Amino acid sequence: MTKAEKTRNYIIEKTAPIFNMKGYAGTSLHDITAATGLTKGSIYGNFANKDEVALAAFDYNFNNNVLQIESSMRAQTTAKGKLLVYVSIYQNFITGTISLGGCPILNTATDADDTHPALREKALKAVLSWKKRIIKLVEEGIENKEIALDSNAEQIALTVIAMIEGGIMISTLTNKLDNWDLIMDSLKKYVNSLG
Length: 195
What we know:
The protein is an all-alpha fold. The protein has nine helices and no strands. Residues 28-47 bind DNA.
């Protein structure tokens, strides 16, 4: 890896949590230089503008999330067990054990909905990718006779995503972890009822 690539990766790693917590509009150049200890010239020597940093930061946050999910899923032997991994991984966003500032998909989708088309597109692709992965899990569960044959894989995927993202939003807004627990308890019951 070249020095420029190392510097670029360093900037992304240091700023990804800031963009996720503060959003695109809320993250200033000062935030970026303070987090990295680099000058404005160093930042713009590696990125054309703040947009490029924000897009790279989203990719970094999202890819870390996917890696954690995939790693946890390897320990599961059933489709339902793999679906329930989402509950435990996203629990970390709520309890703060992951210091990335919450769910990168929800944060970015909310922040960039009407203001930043490129970030909105990244969030959309992330949701569609997530939906595709859940559909594949459900189809595996159907094939293994773990999930009912007449199940609608797309409907299940959308329900899981909506309950997780809605649970994060509600518990964060209300600042009540109990709300997350109640919603995730409903999601666990839903997943376990699929068979």
